[in-house]
User: Fold Reactive intermediate/imine deaminase from Bowmanella pacifica.
Amino acid sequence: MTIKRFGIHGGVGTGGQHLPFARAVEAGGWLYVSGQTPMRDGEVVEGGVIEQSRIAIENCLEIMQEAGYGLQDVVHVKVILTDARYFQSFNKVFKEVFGEHPPARICAVADLVVDCKVEVDVTCYKGA
Assistant:
């Protein structure tokens, strides 16, 4: 089985630090996208949970597209919110993106290393 890593050279976090992990890894038809926060050009985009959720999901979708995967390939999503009160707002954005064919999902509340409201990662699958 071949393992392909995406974005291992140049991933940038807050303050311009180089991130020591791949943006995504593909193996055996599976694509694992690293957790994405609402960042643009290495800086967190300020805003409410709806705006931050859209950006975090868009960041996942951009990485998926780079790897040749689309929404139809998403099988599981992990979500971390920093406040349980964000749950309904996040669900609104999630439904806008995934529509009537949502993937499996887990949503938890925890502190994040980055000062934002949400982090999202996705797992995709494309058969041979």
